[in-house]
């Protein structure tokens, strides 16, 4: 039930709409019930239809990536989009697991991106000021 208060030429009216079926509205005005005939039937809301989504397929890594993993190379990836504020490693540098390799600014916060294993820096793919997307390779370690 919906209730409305109106003033028409200074006179107050309390209008309650009890319900609508096809083109007849059950209305109460200042306590007096009326059946009001509408010019057109009121459109009934359409049912909500949800799309069926196919399951996501797992895609295998490209052959070059598989060979790199087999060769013992791993990639440190950006966990979120952002801007590179600092690169703390150089090619050939020995690093330990947990050591910060890149400082990434995202959502006005600095995030330390750490090495996922011990090793030697094989390649640095970014430099200060670069904008990276989530999943972008920052550094490779062998």
CATH topology of the largest domain: OB fold (Dihydrolipoamide Acetyltransferase, E2P)
Identify the strand order in the major beta sheet.
Answer: 1-2-3-4
- Structural class determined from secondary elements: mainly beta
Question: Span between N and C termini?
Answer: 70 Å
Residue share in helix = under 10%
User: Overall pLDDT, averaged?
Assistant: 82
Notes on the protein architecture:
It is a single chain. The chain is mainly β and 142 residues long. The chain folds into two domains: 2-37, no CATH class; 72-141, OB fold (Dihydrolipoamide Acetyltransferase, E2P) (Beta Barrel), CATH 2.40.50. It has one helix spanning 63-70; strands at residues 2-8, 11-21, 24-29, 32-37, 74-77, 82-87, 94-95, 100-106, 109-114, 119-124, 131-132, 137-141. A hairpin with a 2-residue loop joins strand 8 and strand 9. Residues 57-61 have low confidence and may be disordered.
Task: Indicate the topology.
Elements: E1 2-8, E2 11-21, E3 24-29, E4 32-37, H1 63-70, E5 74-77, E6 82-87, E7 94-95, E8 100-106, E9 109-114, E10 119-124, E11 131-132, E12 137-141
Antiparallel strand pairs: 1-2, 2-3, 3-4, 5-12, 6-8, 6-11, 7-10, 8-9, 10-12
Brief summary of the model shown:
With 142 residues, the protein is mainly beta. It is 6% helix and 48% strand.
Essential attributes:
2 domains, OB fold (Dihydrolipoamide Acetyltransferase, E2P), 142 residues, rod-shaped, mainly beta, 4-stranded antiparallel sheet, 6% helix
């Amino acid at each position: 039930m919906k209730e409305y208060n109106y003033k028409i030429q200074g006179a107050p009216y309390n209008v309650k709409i009890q319900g609508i079926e096809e083109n007849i509205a059950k209305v109460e005005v200042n306590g007096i019930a009326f059946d009001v005939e509408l010019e057109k039937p009121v459109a009934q809301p359409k049912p909500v239809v949800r799309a069926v989504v196919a399951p996501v397929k797992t895609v295998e890594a490209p052959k070059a990536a598989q060979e790199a993993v087999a060769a013992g190379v791993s990639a440190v990836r950006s966990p979120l989009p952002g801007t590179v504020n600092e690169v703390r490693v150089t090619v050939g540098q020995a690093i330990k697991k947990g050591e910060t390799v890149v400082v990434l600014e995202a959502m006005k916060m600095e995030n330390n991106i750490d090495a996922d294993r011990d090793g030697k820096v094989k390649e640095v793919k970014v430099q200060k000021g670069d904008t990276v997307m989530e999943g972008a390779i920052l550094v490779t370690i062998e």
